[in-house]
Here is the input.
Amino acid sequence: MYGAVIHAPGDVRYEERPEPEVLEPTDAVIRVTAACVCGSDLWRYRGIAPVTKPTPIGHEYCGVVEAVGDAVTSVKPGDFVVGGFNPCDNTCAACRKGATANCLNAAHYDGCQAERLRVPLADGTLVATPGMPDEDLIPSILTLSDVMCTGWHAAVSAGVGPDTTVAVVGDGAVGLCAVLAAVQLGAPTVIAMSRHEARQKVATAFGATHIVAERDEAGIAAIQALTEGIGADCVLECVGTEEARLQAAGAVRVGGTIGLVGVPHGDLPVERFFWKNIGIKGGPANCRAYLPHLLDLVLSRTINPGLVFDLELPLSEIAEAYAAMDTRRAIKSLVRPNAEVD
Here is the structure.
C-alpha cells in the first residue's frame, strides 16, 4: 500500500509502505476513505518539532473495517467507522472518568495518511455509523477524528454555556470548530479572531456573532469593546504559540477561563493568570468521550464541520496538501487515500 512519510522539514512523500495487519486480538484494520493534514502536523513540516528519521505521518481518518482481531466485538468488517487521534480502551479508570485522551493503556497509530491503517484498541477507539453514511457527510465525520472534538474540548474546558461570552483565538480548522462548538453549547456572543476573509466566512457560517481582525493590543481592545470593557468570559486558545496565549490572556476577563487546546510552544504568562484569577483548563481532546454526541449531530445534519476543508486531493498529492496549508492557501486539506489516480 501507499502512505505519507515525512523525511525532513518541508519533505513529505507518497511512498510504498508495508500492508498493516492484525497484530493483537484487539486490533482492527481499516481501508481509509478519507484522511487529512492537521495543523499539528505542520510543526514537524516547518521544522519546529524534530524529524530524526523518515516517519509515517497523520492521525485523522475515517473508513471501512476490513479485518478485526478475535477480541473485537463492537465493530465488524464492512462497518464505516471513525476514531479519535488518541486510541484508547475506553474501559480503564481514566477513560471511565471521561479522560480518554489519557487512557492508562493508550496506543498510537503508524501514520493515518495511508491507504490502510491498523487501529489498536479498536473496541475502545472506533465508533461505527449506522450503515454507510452519505458521501457529503464524509468530511464532517472526518473532523470528528480530531478538529471538531478538539474545538469542542476547548469550549467544554472553558465552561462555555448559555450565559457566556466567548472569544476564539486562532482561525485554523480547530479555531473554526471551536466557534461551532461554542454556538452549539449556547453562547449568545461568539467572537472569532481572524484576519482572513475565507476563514471569516466559515466562522460566520458556523454562527460567530462578531469578527475581530485586529491582533495584539488592538485585538484585546476590540474584544473589550464587545464585552462591557472587561473581556470575554471564556477564551478558546486554538493555536499553541506563545503569542496566541498572550492574546488569550489579554482577551479573557478577570475571573474568566481559558480553554487551552493549541499544542504548546513557548511559555504561559502564569503571573498574569494569577493576578486576574483566570482559570486554565485544556489539553488533548477526549475524542472518544465526545464522539457519540458529535456523530449524532453530524448525521442529523445539525452541524457541518466539514466546511473547514477547502482543498481535496488524492493522497498521491500529499506534498501539495501540506504546502497549501503551510502557506495558508488552504484552511485544511482533505486527502483521499484510495482515490482513482490518472
